[in-house]
Amino acid sequence: MKNLPDEAAQGGITMYREVAQKLLSFIKSSPTSFHAVWNTSGILEEEGFERLKEGSAWNIRPGGRYYVTRNGSSILAFKTGTQMENYSFHITASHSDSPTFKLKENAQIDVRGKYTVLNTEGYGGMLCSTWFDRPLSLAGRVIVKEGNSLASRLLDIDRDLLMIPSLAIHMNREVNEKQSLNKQKDMLPVYSGRKMDADALKNLVADELEVEAEQIYGTDLYLYNRAEPSIWGAEEEFISSPRLDDLECAYASLQGFLRGENSETVRVYACFDNEEVGSQTKQGAASTFLSDVLTRINAALGKTPEDLSRALASSFMLSCDNAHAVHPNYPEKTDVCNCVYMNEGIVVKSHAGQKYTSDAVSIALFKMICEKAGVPVQFFANRSDMNGGSTLGNIAMSQVSVNTVDIGLAQLAMHSSFETAGVKDAAYLIRAAEAFYKSHICEMDAGVYEIKESCTGK
Ligand code: ZN
What we know:
single chain, alpha/beta, nine-stranded mixed sheet, five-stranded mixed sheet, binds zinc ion
């Protein structure tokens, strides 16, 4: 195994394989956005971050570290500098959710007294066929009534519990030529080999949480793929796992955030829920969450609204979401000369219609940061006759408008229940994010930028 470029010179940056293993164990322990945010909170607490509540007053000190969650499924963490005279925000944004199936409130369906299947509906745009014939289970959050209060509890039924069996080819001879999948007909998971009591599933959830079934007042439960993450390939160059989109970026930008210090900026780590369903929720990237938190940071530091506008004018954001690598069986699906490969560095995405926020200025600044950090970058654009997805960046812009570049890591099989990426790329993003958080982007004159550690006395 080769080390990352000039790894020894960086001192202490672990080898990428070790980084990939840590990433995969983070993803494995995060079957839903609620778990991802819970695990992120745990990492932040270990690093000495103080939890803030949106409903309480904030006492923020220069040089402090804090985090705040919304809905238990989106999280913002930040570190304030010690010299805040002309501060700006350095932000990364990623998303905590992935396409899956959500359990409906009344979920049990009896089939001829011989099976119980569960009634689900799609969450986000998944590749349905990838959910067939593999052990699945349920995870999410449960609202439990305790006395007069309602408490949110995390649930992960950590065993092979469900399966969506495919139909035998003998009963659908044309399946390999044409397959259309109906979420209400084809995608319901089998739960039991008999007709279960009406409360069976509720009782299972209650048993897992060690409460009574009557105490369960609400649930947000999702299917997840039980497959073990894997490092594979002739030279172990690939990683495969559920939810690489976007937990690979969420994890890597978090590690970069933890390492990146700068005394003149407020460094912000953002991870939003609901990107896969359009972000228009109270905790999504289109919500007021980020702008609320930035406004409160500014006020708590004793600054004026004008100071906030000045800070935002010189702020910078990395919108981090995975990108499509060239598929070996379909190379024609990607642009001829703006196509990307796994293990070849960070993907910078651009789109003339501004589905990606990148422009010449934000691309140039990011390129320079990566160059200094010794991290390779590659460029992605969709084929001009194909629409890609939009990203967090341009959605968040409606609430907080700052210079932003859309980046990500190259992967295959996006929105499959088991996706594939490069073993080196998370380590590249950690290093790039660290370099981004360590730097201060100074506008020396109108449209003239320098990347320094300090803009004081520029
Ligand atoms: Zn994504």
